[in-house]
Amino acid sequence: MTPDSIRGVFIMLDQRILVAYASHTGSTEEAVGTALQEHGARVDVHPVQDVTTLKPYRTVLVGSAIHAAKWLPEAAEFVKRHTTELEQLPLSYFLVCATFREDTAEHHREVLAYLDPVRVLLEPLEIGLFAGRLDASRLPLLERMLVKAMKSGEGDWRDWEAIHDWAGGVWEHLEHGEGEAVA
Ligand SMILES: Cc1cc2nc3c(=O)[nH]c(=O)nc-3n(C[C@H](O)[C@H](O)[C@H](O)COP(=O)(O)O)c2cc1C
């Protein structure tokens, strides 16, 4: 083993990653944590409201379902609440939505703009955009009515390979200390 590869093993052992998420029906967010684990990372996956400190973490991924063209409010609140700590860490954002069920250039632009309010707070190193699942039977009455009014209809558009690949890219950048933005 070369000194570099030994250092790499120690960095990997030392890495603890937080996936903090906001979700109403749990379509995708835990899968990001599972994919990171498969890449060898030590990962904690928690709803944003359960996270009180970022001290144990070397990097943080914050993700949310999209409602009304925005992250759920508790996810944006998480970023506001932890801005000072997050400024010191590699930070990634991801979202799960219905619009991205068709990965066109127009949808990419539209969906990326959902993150504008939180990118103003802090700019992440990496961004993941994912299609989710819309299943009205899992939603409370008011949301069920809103979904019926949405043009997308119901469906499960999750692309597990895309999620796995993105998580792998985040892991690669951590491992190799790269920090360019991906959006
Ligand atoms: C009330 C409501 C509003 C939504 N608004 C949007 C939206 O503005 N744009 C979009 O692309 N998807 C929208 N969606 C779809 C969700 O983002 C999608 O179903 C996501 O996978 C849900 O994630 P979750 O299972 O983690 O809650 C909406 C869903 C609901 C229930």
TrEMBL record:
GO terms, biological process: heme biosynthetic process
Name by which UniProt lists this protein: Flavodoxin
Pfam families named in the record: Flavodoxin_5
Recorded GO MF terms: FMN binding; menaquinone-dependent protoporphyrinogen oxidase activity
Ranges for domain Flavodoxin: 18-156
Coiled-coil zones: none
UniProt-listed InterPro entries: Flavodoxin_dom, Flavoprotein-like_sf, Protoporphyrinogen_IX_DH
Source organism per UniProt: Deinococcus detaillensis
